[in-house]
Amino acid sequence: MTEQQFPGRLTSRSIRSFVIRNGRLTKAQAAAMQNLLPEFGVQYKDDQLLDFTTLFDLTGAAPITTAEQTPDDAPVWLEIGFGNGDALVDMAKRYPENRFIGIEVHEPGVGQALMGIESESLSNVRIVQHDAIEVLQNMIPDASLNRVLLFFPDPWRKKRHFKRRIVQTEFIELVADKLESGGVLHCATDWHDYALWMVEKLNSCKRLVNQSNSGDYSERPAWRTNTRFEQRGERLGHDVFDLLYRKP
Ligand SMILES: C[S@@+](CC[C@H](N)C(=O)[O-])C[C@H]1O[C@@H](n2cnc3c(N)ncnc32)[C@H](O)[C@@H]1O
User: Fold this and answer.
1) I need a surface site. Which of 17, 62, 134, 219 has the fewest CB within 10 A?
2) Distance between CA atoms of residues 180 and 175, nearest Å
3) Residue 22: what pLDDT?
4) Interval between CA 188 and ligand 1 midpoint (Å)
5) Does the beta carbon of 79 lie inside 6 Å of ligand 1?
6) What's the chain's average pLDDT?
């Protein structure tokens, strides 16, 4: 499928929200990529929607984990740009009754998250190492996600880079397609101007309802993990903004 064939279709070229950094993997991360990715990783395919029942089915596999399998109708939470997997691993541990899909392009982060999955003996997490926009478009069925989590996305602070911010109208529409009724998009950022940008774009989407009483930010949910990039923001003295939008 090319952009020419589908004019107007959202592509990773329309929002290029990441740069691939050549971070070196530690030995442990490299070992995790080799040993754990076959079990927890999902190969990106642009022509095949995921079947969550099959995706989280461990029957027949030789799981290294001991945790019980989650039921087929368990809510699916999807985290975009999980970094080192701090929040992903913590949420999966905290909510064993849910199923989690984490998407990240940065390989050392993927390796680190896999290490966390193993050390916590989690069986309810799957990882896709690919552009989240393409994953959402081509692999995630419509109305299938209970939560989409976007914690501390790259702020792309220079004006000429604003087009690289992942929170754009087309992205919000795509997320709205993928959320089930009652599902929630949860964003957090420590950059005030990006928070204002998010509120403006998200409040304009008629398909999602801001959960904030004041029409902008919501209280930070107590369970939300303090991630590496949140800690960086705190060191810089930044306030943190949580934004929660529900699909009716
Ligand atoms: C600023 S970091 C935040 C990481 C983590 N959420 C945290 O709070 O520590 C943003 C992450 O999003 C990832 N990212 C950005 N755009 C992405 C995309 N389109 N698909 C997948 N990952 C993406 C980057 O590789 C990076 O690791």
Assistant:
1) 62
2) 10
3) 76
4) 12
5) no
6) 91
Measured from the CB, is residue 83 less than 6 Å from ligand 1?
Answer: yes
27-246: CATH topology is Rossmann fold (3.40.50)
Domain ranges of the chain: 27-246
228 within ligand 1 shell (Cβ under 6 A) = yes
Output the pLDDT for position 62: 41
Question: Tens digit of pLDDT for each residue in 34-90?
Answer: 999 999 999 999 998 999 999 998 554 444 344 455 567 899 999 999 999 999 999
Site to probe by mutation for ligand 1, drawn from 42, 105, 129 as the one with most ligand atoms within 8 Å of Cβ, is: 105
Residue with CA at minimum distance from ligand 1 atom 5: 83
> Is pLDDT at 3 greater than 50 in this prediction?
no
Taking the centre of ligand 1 as the mean of its atom positions, its distance from the CA of residue 31, in whole angstroms, is 22
Share of the chain above pLDDT 70, in %: 89
Q: Residue 162 — pLDDT band, cuts 50, 70, 90?
A: very high
